[in-house]
Structure formats: structure tokens, C-alpha cells
Glutamine--fructose-6-phosphate aminotransferase [isomerizing] (Nocardioides bizhenqiangii), 370 residues
Amino acid sequence: AAYDAGEHESFMHKEILEQPAAAERVLRGRLDDRFATGHLGGLNLDARELRAIRRVKVLGCGSAYYVGQMGAELLEDLARVPADAEAASEFRYRNPIIEPDTLYVAVSQSGETIDTLLAVQEIRRKGGYVIGLVNVVGSAIAREVDGGIYLHAGPEVAVASTKALTNMFLGFAMLALQLGRVRDLSIADGRRLIAGLEALPRKIEEILATEEQLEAVAERLAEAESLFFVGRVRGFPVAREGAQKFKEISYRHAEAYQTSELKHGPLALINPDVPTVAIVPDDELVERNVAALHEIAARGGPLVVVTHEEVSLEGLPDEGVERIVVPRSERELDPILLTVPLQLLAYHAAKRLGHDIDKPRNLAKSVTVE
Ligand code: G6P
């Protein structure tokens, strides 16, 4: 049958709800329990070649860039290999140094984004090794790379990427597992991650079941002219992606910031008309993150706190503070669960404002001219 929105009012909504099934597809057959590692045949790299990697550079545009930041964080954390992400649209214009022992990772849903494709070509021209995290089979980027991981998210129609992005994250998690297990990641940690990955689709479902609460919060956020999304370390790319989605479809000004940097500038802008969506997982930074919430509340700033059950918000005012609880996973995998409610916040804000959710103004699903 043709892919249509069916009983859903938009493709974006349908695609958000498809995430548990899509996540299962990307994981299927790619986790190796016996050796507690990833089983990614398409990388075309044997253990010796994987071990020789000294650095990882991730490239993508838009949401693919932000999930690339989440992925780089995961890779550095689990495989202990220096990793970072860069906007593919900027990369080749600064005459980048291409190193033979760097693994380049191009991330793209469509596989047709020209900025990402040109970055891949620049790397290969200089002799670098590039793998793709691509959804569309046989697309330009998929054909150009040395190896890769297909995302199996199925067709994605809405301009704002949801299920493809989730599968990109899972692709990174499996890559980090496989890279980690030829280096210093223990078998116990490998098993812990595999169990965490296998449990993710059900946890995404739990978040989707809270849609009514998210809708109510989104309708209030839609009234604001301007918002902040804040997070730290693993939570910062989550905030960036949350702000991106929100501005793409609601046309509200949404700015992502490191929570730690608020006091170095934008705290001056916090007031009762400027809400902040704060990413506050129960991790090693929780106390500092909660302290920042107090700073925001003290200036009358409304708060939406995306957090875990265990995190106490005691002492914050009842009024103007919304708590959105997501199930926890392994700390390395938490970012993707923290991202899912932000999709529904953006979606319901845009819906409230009466916008064309699947085709926001001035944007294209894939940008094929530079
Ligand atoms: C466009 C879309 C974004 C998307 C980006 C990358 O700008 O509007 O939503 O994240 O392209 O697309 P890709 O297909 O390369 O993942």
C-alpha cells in the first residue's frame, strides 16, 4: 500500500508514533549477546581496522547534525575515542585536515542533502574513510560512502525528522558498542548496553502514552514569543534538537543554550514571558542543573523540566513549573528518551497555532542545492 498518513492528522504525528516499531527494526540482528557487541556488517571494517581508529568526526545538517552531537558524545563515552560533530554545510569551507586514522561518519535521513554529500566527497577525495548513517537505501550518500549503517526507519515524509532521528541515535549506540568492545569497554558494560537498547522501544512507548500531558504543556508554550531550551553535556544536543523542532514548525523563537552558560549571558532575558524547557536527567550534573532551575524561577521564568522520577524539584514554586517525567535507561542512552517528549511539544504547539505541520514555510525535507 502507498505510504499515507492514514487516520493521523499529519505525517509527523504518524511518524512520532511509529518510533517503537522503527527502533526495533534498526536494532534487529545487529546486537551480539555472546560477545556483548554490535554486529554491523556494513561498516566494512575488521577488528584491527576498528582498533586503529584514533578519532571520529561526525557530519550532518539540521537534526542530523544535532543527533550527530549526541552520537559523538556516546562514542567518546563508550569507546573512549575522541569524537565530535560538525555541521556538514561548514566543513569543507574551512579546508579541514583529513586524517587516515579518523573515522568520518555522514548522517542523513534522505541521503540526498547536498551539503553532506559534498562533505563526503571532499573527505574521500583526500583519502579519508567515511561511513554513512542513512535511511534511504540507494541514495546519493549511501552510494558514495565506504560503508555504513542503514537506519530502516521506513519512509519519513514530515520535514521535521522524528523516527529517522531516533534510529540515527540507535545506529550511533551500536557503533559505539562495537568500537568500544574492540577497545576498553568491558563485557559487563556491553551487556548492560544491549539490555538497555532492547528495552528502549517499550520505553519510547511509555513516553508516547503521556501525549495528553505534553499537549497541555505545548499549548501553553505556544503562547510565548520566545523560549529557551537548556541542557548540559549529554543533555545539550537534546536541547538543541528540541529548540530546532520547536522553531521549525511553531515559528516561535526557540534558543538552545548550555545550562551552565545561562549565567554568562541569557539569564538577562529570563522573565515571566520567556519559558525555559530544561533537560534535567538524573546524572552526575543533576544538582547543578537543579540549581540553575532555581536561578530561572527566581526571575519569574516559567519552567518545563524534562526529567527522571528520582529528581527532586523541591523548593521550586508550584506555579509555573511543569514536570515531564521520562523513564530512565542506561545513562548513555538517556538522551534519546529525553528527546521524544520534545517532538510532541513542538508538534502540539504548531498544531495549536494552526500551522502546516508537515510542510513548514521556507523549509524542504531535503535540501539538494547548495
Ligand atoms: C533539511 C530538513 C531538516 C533535516 C536536514 C537534514 O534542512 O529541513 O529537517 O534535518 O535537512 O536532512 P537529511 O536528509 O540529510 O537528514
